[in-house]
Fold this protein.
Amino acid sequence: MTDCLFCKIAAGEIPSDKVYEDDDVFAFKDIHPKAPVHVLIIPKQHVATLTDAKDPALLGMLMDRVRKIADEVLNLAKGYRVIINVRSGGGQEVFHLHAHILGGKVLPF
Ligand code: 5GP
Ligand code: ZN
């Protein structure tokens, strides 16, 4: 999608601190981290929000990469939190589906 911040980040048109990339996803550090480790994982395919993600294969792929990146790239052996904010009422600010990985400290509820 042409006018999407995260599509532009995934395409390298806007710089980011990349932590992982493959054919399906792009992962980068959040610009305003809320934990010592705060990484965003996005599908390269533009999907605005979880409500629009009707393809179970896409969602399965995304969660597989969350697990892989958290455990094998970020090495969050003590654990981590995964958050997907859904639409404005859920705190979503960027309308390209993304999962947050938060870790590096014990997280309060
Ligand atoms: P949301 O609130 O939509 O779930 O999360 C969007 C996240 O994107 C926020 O945590 C925000 O800090 C992050 N963010 C917004 N703009 C940029 C940017 O240009 N670069 C990076 N790396 N993160 C961004
Ligand atoms: Zn997009």
